[in-house]
Design a protein that fits this description.
single chain, mainly alpha, two-stranded antiparallel sheet
Length: 120
């Protein structure tokens, strides 16, 4: 499923939920969404096995951290920052070390080598 479809569906769900909030509380609902977004920018993600991992994921969803706004750091994953020009070499080095490169969904990435797809 592509990002546009996800955003459209999520936008529709949020719009539907906001119509259910009484008008006098709409500002508080908006502040809650903003607070969740701000908190996920400040609070580092917990370890994958932590009891807080699910709460953190819920907070990022409520804070609308999806698509381009999605957090780069997730529970149980790390991000290695390299210059964009070095990205292919970094992926190759990590893969050569036997460490799987994960895609956006946290699944091992499918690597292409000389026209043949390899699954690691």
């Amino acid at each position: 499923m592509n990002t546009t479809a996800k955003l459209g569906g999520l936008g529709a769900v949020i719009a539907l939920l906001l119509t259910e909030v009484p008008e006098q509380y709409a500002l508080y609902a908006a502040i809650f969404v903003f607070a969740c977004s701000a908190a996920t920018a400040i609070i580092p993600p917990p370890h994958a096995g932590s009891r807080w991992a699910l709460a953190y994921q819920l907070m990022t969803t409520i804070g609308l951290n999806i698509g381009w706004a999605e957090n780069h750091f997730k529970p149980g994953q790390s991000g290695v920052r390299v210059p964009l020009a070095d990205k292919p070499a970094a992926k190759q080095a990590v893969t050569a070390a036997g460490i799987p490169v994960l895609n956006r969904k946290g699944q091992p990435e499918t690597l292409k080598k000389q026209g043949v797809q390899l699954r690691r």
